[in-house]
Fold:
Amino acid sequence: MPTTPRTAPVLDLASRTPLLEITRDPSPRSLPTCSTLSVDTGLTPPSGYSPKPIVMWLNSRKYSPQAIQAISRAVEPYVYLLGDETAASWPNDGRYLDGTSYYWSTQDPWNNSRAGAAVSELASLVHADGKQWFAPFIAGYNKQLMGGTCVERRGTQTLTQLWQLNSATRPDGWFGISWNEFVENTYLEPSKRYGSMYLDALSALIKKAS
Structure:
């Protein structure tokens, strides 16, 4: 039975443009649904990237290059397709994508000495191929109640540190993780606990960079 991709708004902070992200594994049978979805969203195409809406395919790196090629060909007339890749997977998959980010919801600038290098290596490969690189950022991560790990928010320090760290990769855009992922506690959406603190902090970072 064909699956319908679930979509969620993502904020491209460079252009203030909503994006779409494919968050359920698409199969060839679901491609017509993907195409219809991308055309009927009513989103304003972001200037500077493409006249087509941007779609990010989460976990694209877990598919074979053949599958990525087939899906890319099917949706190419409708969307600007970003992958979710790493430095190890991009050399195989990048030719079929318009660009990529990396859904690294546990990027830890405090306890992982490779936090910056891993992203920088991927960005260099993407730019070398003439493709678009969307740097990720998080405000924090906490999945301890489900047996996972934690990247402390430290107020807005983690957000600020990762923004500065990943700015060194010369991103063409940014990918925020996430708007309302409350299970992993990466959410940026205003809440009773934090108010609009994280959107205010992002606004300040964007203005400082512009």
